[in-house]
Write a structure and sequence with these properties.
The protein has two domains: 123 residues, no CATH class; 90 residues, no CATH class. Helix content is 2%, strand content 40%. The strands form six sheets. A five-stranded antiparallel beta sheet has the order 16-15-14-11-19, with no helix packed on it. The relative contact order is 0.19. The chain is globular. The N terminus is likely disordered. It is mainly β.
């Protein structure tokens, strides 16, 4: 589940684009062969690790990020972001931040500030994007409170449904993500439900149910992970 943060005032440098009649129009948006269709404008598709130097504790990005109006180096710069706190980001690993990605036009990715300013950034040298199906591999994962409690026998809304229960006090249900599949533009995840968290007890948890869930309920992720382990 996304980590809540105190939102500090957004420090942005707005650049005004001056154009005349001789200025050529922006390039057409770049299309990607690896696009992932999402359920809504606010459905995240993965995380972008900017690469470069590790966070030094200052809260500053290694390099300023220019958020552009379209996935093109000739598009207008909407804002320039210099601080991690101004971006919507998550930990992809222990104390390793990564920017939340909302759209994919490889090598351009749509990201957002905490003030809901959205723009495209080009994948920097040394950077990497991890899409949701790969994000949950070998992780401590759980069903979030956004999950409606249903497991489908197949990645199909008309498939047989079971309701395993087992939410903890935070409304979470420990699971292992075993598979993923795109069906008619919807990303489905196959999960095995634990009887308890792997972080509890001295023996591995038992699997009590297995089935498919949609990766998103509206704009909210139904599965997330603990970036710092137990």
């Amino acid at each position: 589940m996304p980590i809540s943060r105190r939102h500090l005032p957004l420090a942005l440098v707005a650049l005004v684009a001056c154009r005349d009649s001789s200025t050529p129009p922006p390039e057409s948006p770049v299309e990607t062969s690896t696009a992932i269709t999402v359920s809504g404008i606010d459905s995240m598709i993965g995380l972008l690790n900017l690469g470069g130097p590790v966070a030094d504790g200052s809260g500053l990005l290694a390099l300023p990020l220019q958020l552009r109006a379209a996935p093109s180096s000739t598009a207008d710069t909407i804002v320039t972001v210099t601080r991690w706190v101004d971006l919507i980001a998550e930990e992809i690993d222990y104390e390793v931040p990564a920017v939340v990605v909302w759209r994919d036009a490889n090598p351009w990715y749509l990201v957002s500030t905490h003030d809901s300013v959205r723009g495209w950034i080009e994948l920097p040298e040394g950077g990497a994007v991890t899409l949701i199906p790969q994000l949950f591999e070998n992780r401590l994962t759980y069903l979030t409170p956004a999950w409606d409690g249903r497991l489908f026998a197949a990645p199909d809304s008309s498939a047989e449904v079971t309701r395993p229960g087992g939410r903890d006090g935070d409304g979470q249900t420990s699971v292992e993500v075993r598979d993923s599949r795109m069906v008619d533009g919807t990303l489905w995840l196959r999960v095995a439900v634990h009887d308890r968290s792997p972080c509890e007890g001295t023996t591995p948890p038992r699997y009590v149910a297995d089935g498919w869930v949609k990766a998103w309920t509206g704009a909210r992720n139904t599965v997330w992970y603990y970036s710092r382990g137990c």
